[in-house]
Design goal:
alpha/beta; Aminopeptidase; Glucose Oxidase, domain 1; 2 domains; 10-stranded mixed sheet; 11 helices; 27% helix; Peptidase_M28; M28_fam; M28 family peptidase
Length: 486
């Protein structure tokens, strides 16, 4: 049957799905809405990885999975897989002074990368990079205005101002790093200052890594951004900058929630169709229009509640293969939860026949969607892609945008979600999404802005795709020539 004619309304149960078809009617708009508003409420405080708020959200997901009939599939018979993450940040008692006058760390001064260093050196102000030929900069503090990167980030890119600053920093410091300066101070321009609440918060938070990964060593001159109001002090004669920059290191627990619905076929139930998403977001951050809670309704509460609905449908009508559900932690800190799970799976890795990942599935035009991993060089299983496209054609009829899957797309969206570690491990993987929007990584990503009808359709598309994988006599093959461009 063609589900497209009913896809914008809550389906009726007047027709009972046969055992050979996915029970799309089991996914209900009202339940998605209720769960979405709870998980992305202010009470959840944005669910930042490594905080009690993330653990609270994970416990909520596990309880909902249990209530849906899903079995625990984490460590030691639980729904949980804890893993440690290491955070390195500039210590709050670090100091920077200009001729004895302290700068306000994280207010008009931002250290761009954690480093433990002390210096007391004269300032050389450069009007441009060409001025480097005029001075011996060894042991000096180089100060100059932040210069616009070339090329500029593509118009309309997400987090444009942050990308602008990151590119400018990279280009300018690369040009200066061989001059053996004691430090580099760059004065923010209007583009940087227009969104520096968010940008500065990123620098303040520091870096996150999985435990056991080698620490990133910053052996080059520290790079400091200062507000334009500081520039006149740096341009005077006989100026010295003294700094004592220290770092703090923390180890936090993060958590994957893992559950399963056993398959019905004795020969196939030991194989798993893995449904993937992440349950964390950005937590409490820079205030925007009076709101500092980054709720993450689309990113990624939309997928979290969709997986719960799919799990409930699977328990009511099991597929031949088992369904495995992994709600990853610490995705926003660098895909840490999915990277950990790929290295420490709670089922045999070879039993995972396909990964159906999703990220942000509740916004933008009602009939538009994207399937990443569907065209080369990101496609690693033509068979799996065909199953997903066939499920869409048969049931949900979205207009599929493939442009974001192109290697040339400036967002690099394929490389920014939890399917990636699985694909790198050689497991067939696709990525369902309705793409970015202006509220991405802002406090405006609220439940009220989610298109519940569209969210339900996306959940049904994922479910129908997983059902097709589950019922197929043969697991989807990986393409022998599949190779990511980076």
């Amino acid at each position: 049957m063609a589900f497209a004619t009913a896809c914008t309304k809550t389906p009726s149960r007047s027709v009972t799905a046969t055992p050979t078809e996915p029970d799309l009617l089991a996914i209900q708009d009202d339940e998605l809405r209720e769960n979405l508003f709870t998980l992305s409420s202010d009470e959840m405080r944005g669910k930042r990885a490594g905080t009690v708020d993330e653990l609270r959200a994970a416990a909520w997901v596990a309880e909902k999975a249990r209530a849906a009939g899903l079995q625990p599939a984490g460590d030691d018979g639980t729904y949980f897989q804890f893993f440690p993450i290491n955070r390195t940040k500039v210590a709050d008692n670090s100091t920077i002074e200009i001729n004895g006058k302290s700068l306000a760390l994280w207010q008009n001064t931002w250290i761009t990368s954690p480093a433990e260093v002390a210096f007391d050196a004269p300032v050389v102000w450069l009007s441009s990079l060409a001025d480097t030929a005029k001075y011996n900069l060894s042991g000096k503090v180089v100060a100059m205005a932040l210069q616009a990167p070339s090329p500029l980030p593509a118009a309309g890119m997400s987090l444009w101002n942050y990308r602008y600053v990151a590119s400018a920093l990279r280009q300018q410091t690369n040009a200066l790093k061989n001059h053996k300066a004691a430090a580099i101070i760059l004065v923010t321009d209007a583009e940087a200052e227009s969104d520096f609440g968010f940008i500065g918060h990123v620098f303040e938070e520091g870096t996150y890594m999985l435990e056991g990964e080698p620490a990133r060593q910053n052996n080059s001159a520290p790079v400091v951004l200062v507000h334009s109001s500081v520039a006149p002090n740096l341009q005077q004669k006989n100026i010295k900058v003294k700094a004592a920059i220290k770092i703090d290191r923390y180890t936090y627990p993060s958590i994957n929630v893992v559950a399963k619905a056993p398959g019905s076929d004795q020969a196939l139930k030991d194989e798993h169709v893995l449904f993937s998403g992440h349950h964390d977001h950005d937590g409490i951050g820079a205030t925007v229009d009076g709101d500092s809670i980054y709720n993450g309704a689309d990113d990624n509460a939309s997928v979290t509640v969709a997986l719960l609905a799919i799990g409930k449908a699977w328990t009511q009508q099991p597929g031949k293969r088992s369904a495995l559900f992994v709600w990853h932690g610490a995705e926003e800190r660098g895909l840490l939860g999915s990277r950990w799970y790929v290295e420490h799976p709670t089922v045999p890795k070879e039993s995972i026949v396909a990964v159906l990942n999703a990220d942000m599935i509740g916004r933008n035009a009602p009939d538009s969607a994207a399937l990443l991993g569907s065209i080369p060089p990101h496609r690693n299983s033509t068979a799996l892609v065909d199953m997903a496209l066939n499920a869409n054609q048969q049931y949900t009829r979205f207009n599929i945008d493939t442009s974001w899957d192109e290697a040339s797309h400036p967002e690099g969206w394929y490389f920014r979600s939890d399917h990636l570690p699985y694909a790198r491990a050689g497991i067939p993987a696709v990525f369902f999404t309705t793409l970015l929007h202006p509220d991405y990584h802002t406090p405006r990503d609220e439940a009220e802005r989610i298109d519940i009808d569209k969210l339900a359709r996306m959940a049904r598309w994922m479910y129908a795709t997983g059902w097709a994988v589950s019922q197929a006599p043969q697991r989807p093959a990986t393409d022998p020539d599949a190779k990511l461009e980076r």
